[in-house]
Amino acid sequence: MSAMATAYLALACEDVARVAGVFQDTLALPRHDLAIAGGPEAPVFPAGEAALALFETDDPRLDGPAVPGVRHLAFTSRAPARDAEALGLAGAAVDGEFRVDPATTGGLRLRLAPALEGLDRTPGPVVQRIDHVGVACADNRAAQALFVARMSCPLESTQTDMEVSMAVESFTSDSYGVVYHNRPPVPVGGLRVSFVTVGDFELEFLQPFDPTPEAGDSGEPLGAGPGTTRGDRGAIGRYIARRGPGLHHLALKTPDIAAALTRFARAGLRVIDRAGRPGSRRALIGFVHPSALGGVLLHFVQRTPLPGR
After folding, report:
1. Which of 10, 60, 233, 279 has CB 3.0 to 4.6 Å from 227, enough for a Cys bridge?
2. Is 153 exposed, middle or buried (0-12, 13-18, 19+ CB in 10 A)?
3. Mean per-residue pLDDT for 108-127?
C-alpha cells in the first residue's frame, strides 16, 4: 500500500443528479451527501479505500476550466498546510484544503484534505474499488520524481505500449502459385506508461512518444504536440494539446466486466465496448461512453493481481 491515502476523487459532470442516479442504480454504489471544501453537500460514493465526489462543471470548489472530467485528486491529511510544507509542495490553503500548484505536479490537480468520515465501504456487486486513474503526462520521469521519490508512493510497474504497421506482399503466378512476403514491421505510435500506487489504486501516467527510428527516440518527453496515430497515443496527445497535462480518465475494478457493461447497456446508457478486451497488466478492459456519466470517461477493469501484490 502507498503511504498516501486518498480522501476523494473529484468528478465534474453535466447534470449531477442524473449521474448520481447512475452511480446508485447502475453501479450499485452507496450514496452519502457530504460537505466538501467549505461548500454545500455533494454526492459522494465510496469505492474501496477512496471515494468519488460529484460536482457540476462550474462548481467554484473546482479549479480550472468548466469542463467535464476527472478534475482533482485529494490525498488525506490531518494538517494539510503543514504536510504540504513538509513535502515541499507549493500552493495555497483554501477552505480547509491545500490546493497544490499544478505547475509543480506536471498538470495533475492535487489537494491535501481531511478524511471523509462515516462512509459505507462495503464492496458491491459491480465495483470492487478504483483500479487506476489515468493521467495524460508530458514527462513520466518528472512524475516519478514527485510521487515516488518525494511522496514515497511505490512504483507498481512500467511498460511501453507501441503500435506497429505490417505490410504483406503477394506474388501470384499462373505457373508458380502464390508467394507471400512480410515486410518488416514499422512503428507508428507509442506510450510510455508508469503505474504509481496511491492508497489501494494506481495513478497511470501516460506519456506519448514517437517510436520511429527517424525520431531518434531516447525516452525524452514528446511534449504537448498531438499524436499522429489512431490509437491511445493520438488520444492522449490530443488531450494534452487541448487541455494540457492532467487527470484523464477513471477506471473501476469489477469482478465481472461482461456483467458491468451489460448493466450499462440495459439501462439505456451508451457503451463503447460491448465486451472486455485485452488491456494493460493482463486485464480485460471495457469503456463506457462519456455521455453516460455527464462527460466523464470511465472504463471497467477485470484483472487478477500478481501473487504478492
Report:
1. 233
2. buried
3. 94
